Amino acid sequence: MPADDLQAFINDVALVVASSNDQYEITQRIAPRLSALLASGYQLPPEFLRPSSERHLTYPLYIAPDESWSLASVVWNIGQRTPVHGHETWGVVGIYSGTEREIRYVKPTDSAVGEPLTPAGEHEWRRGQVAVCCTTDDDVHSVVATGDEPTVGIHVYGGNIGTLNRPSYDPATGAVHWFTSGWDEPA
Ligand SMILES: [Fe+2]
């Protein structure tokens, strides 16, 4: 039963998050669990898969009651991209469908504000693949939906990712703009 698969995953992640304060350990333990969820053939309900023509969407699959972590379905329509942004927490992302290109940057130190960002590599992620996108010292990237269908990711983050105050960057100048993404309403 698909819904049971997701509930089992949520229960499992809750135990991992409660058992450690070490973001490296937490992310390393969540990654194989997310891989297993994706490999199980779990199907997200259709209301969490709908893209928008305007921008990528972030749907809440689960927000821990104490906001220690959250689970999101992130949906990009064909060709949509995020600004360069940080997360200010740990994160593990898996590709549910479609493909994405991730463009990473070195996280600027406070003293580097106002300097161009340093590129740190690019990677194409495909359906079923899982990556630790973020620890608080290394969490700056942009994401572009590639391929000819929308891209859907299942993302696990420390904290409530919809309400966290996060930086976006102009990579050419290093200028920072703080934002909260909010959550989109599954429709
Ligand atoms: Fe991101």
What does this protein structure show overall?
By secondary structure, the chain is α+β, with helices and mostly antiparallel strands. It has a single domain (3-180), classed as Jelly Rolls. It contains two helices and eleven strands, in the order H-H-E-E-E-E-E-E-E-E-E-E-E. The strands form three sheets. The protein has a five-stranded antiparallel β-sheet with strand order 1-2-9-4-7, with helices on one face. Strands 3-10-11 form a three-stranded antiparallel β-sheet, with no helix packed on it. Strand 1 (57-63) and strand 2 (69-76) form a beta hairpin. Helix 1 runs antiparallel to helix 2. It starts with a helix and ends in an 8-residue tail after the last strand. Bound molecules: fe (ii) ion. The site of fe (ii) ion (FE2) has 5 residues, from strand 8.
